């Protein structure tokens, strides 16, 4: 753990159930989250994201490992002794209280003086641009407005860390996109650490300073969005984040890789035998058909306004997606055979 960490998780494991029925949900998870960082846990349903968040909030206890917040060991501390607050997917506002009463609720519980509560509630509502709705009840607000109030309520006690569990998933797509931008601005303005949980890769890439990709209770890869997108270390990460082509190939000695159809390329690798090559659809290039390149047949072309996406069939029958943003360039015709160049700096060799 370093002093600069907002949240420090060290070798945490967690199982539910007992004896032979026990299910390991988190397996040796370690993460350091920096001050004021927007950090996202990303992974498919059931991978353990919510459980990790609940351990940090104190709603569950770890079987093994240590959790510290702002340098304080809180592994065994009850929720109310932790300087964190949580925003859930379903807002969980009190229906019988007004917006301002909802936002001030925890402050009243803390017995903060009334004048201070009024000021703090005002500031918090201003942050989410909901001052003019202070006297309304939740039922008189839209979904997006309710979620803003839930954010204001979570921010009012000034937590060191805000935990957000799929907070936007109940909103329709347009509102969700708007709220993503607002959330990012709000985090910068409030200057606190956000730990965000989502299964939406685009949302994770858009919002986060760093992302941890989880699968089966483990963190597979952690890094800045661009690093995760451009240099995935695992097949699962490559496949989970955005469109990607995965091609079976064979690693030979001397940095040579044999492609489907026999063409060979030179690319640094430590592997030998069967490997998977990963390349994003926008990175491959159409070239003349010759023996040194991968060959493909154009099966379908979709016009997306800003790009063309060609669906190609490789010699082994597998599909390859090629995104062409240069709409004025030469376009391959349907059914034609083309050559594909896979630029070395855009190609990853994955062993698993
Ligand atoms: N209290 C519990 N008792 C038993 N099993 C649990 C409990 N809570 C969670 N689990 C199991 O632990 C696993 C991880 O659940 P968790 O909610 O952390 O996943 P998640 O990644 O947040 O998924 P989702 O995106 O669907 O919420 C799941 O298989 C779930 O069924």
TrEMBL record:
EC number of the protein: 7.6.2.11
A Pfam family recorded for this sequence: ABC_tran
Catalytic activity entry: ATP + H2O + polyamine-[polyamine-binding protein]Side 1 = ADP + phosphate + polyamineSide 2 + [polyamine-binding protein]Side 1
Keyword list, A-Z: ATP-binding, Cell membrane, Membrane, Nucleotide-binding, Translocase, Transport
A GO molecular-function annotation: ATP binding
Source species, domain of life: Bacteria
SUPFAM superfamilies: MOP-like, P-loop containing nucleoside triphosphate hydrolases
PROSITE patterns: ABC_TRANSPORTER_1 (PS00211), ABC_TRANSPORTER_2 (PS50893)
Translocase among keywords: yes
Domain ABC transporter: 7-241
The protein's role, per its UniProt record: Part of the ABC transporter complex PotABCD involved in spermidine/putrescine import. Responsible for energy coupling to the transport system.
Subunit structure of this chain's protein: The complex is composed of two ATP-binding proteins (PotA), two transmembrane proteins (PotB and PotC) and a solute-binding protein (PotD).
Family per record: Belongs to the ABC transporter superfamily. Spermidine/putrescine importer (TC 3.A.1.11.1) family.
Record-given protein name: Spermidine/putrescine import ATP-binding protein PotA
Gene designation: potA
């Amino acid at each position: 753990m370093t002093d600069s960490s907002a949240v420090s998780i060290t070798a945490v494991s967690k199982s539910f159930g007992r004896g032979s029925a026990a299910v390991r949900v988190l397996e040796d998870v370690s993460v350091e989250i920096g001050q004021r960082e927007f950090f996202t846990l990303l992974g498919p349903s059931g991978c353990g994201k919510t459980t990790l968040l609940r351990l940090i909030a104190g709603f569950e206890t770890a079987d093994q490992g240590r959790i510290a917040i702002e340098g304080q060991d809180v592994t065994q501390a009850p929720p109310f002794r932790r300087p964190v607050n949580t925003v859930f997917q379903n807002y969980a506002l009190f229906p019988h209280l007004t917006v301002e009463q909802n936002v001030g609720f925890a402050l009243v519980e803390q017995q903060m003086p009334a004048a201070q509560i009024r000021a703090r509630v005002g500031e918090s509502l201003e942050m989410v641009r909901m001052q003019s709705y202070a006297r309304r009840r939740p039922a008189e607000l839209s979904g997006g407005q309710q979620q803003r109030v839930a954010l204001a309520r979570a921010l009012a006690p000034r937590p060191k860390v805000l935990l957000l569990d799929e907070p936007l998933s109940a909103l329709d797509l347009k509102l969700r996109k708007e709220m993503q931008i607002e959330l990012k601005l709000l985090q910068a303005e409030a200057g606190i650490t956000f730990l965000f949980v989502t299964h939406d890769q685009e949302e994770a890439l858009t919002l986060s300073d760093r992302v941890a990709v989880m699968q089966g209770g483990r963190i597979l890869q952690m890094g800045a969005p661009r690093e995760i997108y451009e240099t995935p270390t695992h097949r699962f990460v490559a496949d989970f984040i955005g469109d990607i082509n995965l091609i079976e190939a064979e690693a030979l000695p001397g940095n040579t890789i044999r492609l489907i159809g026999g063409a060979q390329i030179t690319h640094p690798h430590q592997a030998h035998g069967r490997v998977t090559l990963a390349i994003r659809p926008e990175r491959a290039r159409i070239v003349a058909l010759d023996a040194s390149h991968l060959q493909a047949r154009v099966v379908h072309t979709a016009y997306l306004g800003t790009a063309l996406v060609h669906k190609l069939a490789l010699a082994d029958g597998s599909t390859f997606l090629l995104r062409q943003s240069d709409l004025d360039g030469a376009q391959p015709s349907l059914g034609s055979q083309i050559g594909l160049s896979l630029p070395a700096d855009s190609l990853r060799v994955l062993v698993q």
